[in-house]
Structure formats: C-alpha cells, structure tokens
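Internal tracking record. Fields below are filled automatically when a chain is submitted to the structure queue. Please do not edit lines marked as system-generated. If the sequence contains nonstandard residues, flag them in the REMARKS field before resubmitting.
Queue: standard
Priority: normal
Entity type: single polypeptide chain
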Amino acid sequence: MATTHTAAGPVALSARLVAGVAGGLAGGVVFGVMMQAWGMLPMVAMLVGSESVAVGWLVHLANSALFGALFAVLLGRWALILPTALGVGLAYGLAWWVLGALLIMPAWLGMNEMIFQLNTVAWRSLAGHLAFGLILGLVYAMAGTRVGRAPTRN
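SYSTEM-GENERATED OUTPUT FOLLOWS
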C-alpha cells in the first residue's frame, strides 16, 4: 500500500483518499452554495443533458468528490501541513478553473466562442474554484494526517 510520510509517521493512501474526498465535498458544498446564489447550477446540469438545479448539485458534488480524490493522489504528499495545504489547494482550484470552467465546460456544451472568455460568470467561477481549493486544502491537511495512519513497525 502506498504511503506518504509525515513528521508524525506514514499516512496510507486509503486515508489520504478519504481526506481528499471529504475535503472535496466540503469545498464543493461551499462552491455549490455560491453557484446556486448566482444561478449557475442549471449550466452545470447541462453537462449531463439537464437544466435542473438538483441535477446540477449532483453533478457538482460528484465532481467535487472526484477532484478531491485526485488531489489526494496527485498533490496530497505536499498538502499535509496547513500553510502548504492552503497554497497547494488554491493552486489546484486555480488549475481547475482554467481547465474546467474556461476550457472543458464551454467546449463540452458546444460554446466554443466562450472558451477562455473572461466575463462576470468566469470571474465568479474563479472565486468559487479558489474557495473550493482553499477548503479542500484545509480539510485535507486537518484530516489527512489524522485519519487511518499506516501501521508502523518497531
């Protein structure tokens, strides 16, 4: 089993994944509330052929959990102490804003003229992605080193 080592000892991959999913869902809820206030959830639902706010929430939270797990696998070893985790989380949120909101989502929805377009929706999305990343990093650092330490041998 893959582990990451901290000053307090090794942390198993399974524990890092749990922390990543928890952080992703926590950040996703905050970002989702922001998107609901801005009327953006129907656009998220359009990714699966719907315009329902409820479907938008489901798609958004599924992505949040997935991206939290991906964070744990790709960046978790650098996000085990709080100050670093906040910075890594912010950078991760920024990366997903560029990839997801500015590129993948408009392309997926056939809005090619909107790819990399900076407008009010894009700036709001940036705020949400940064909040997501910050909370993901925070929760990951707090939970990732405490949940399910890998057994150590004396």
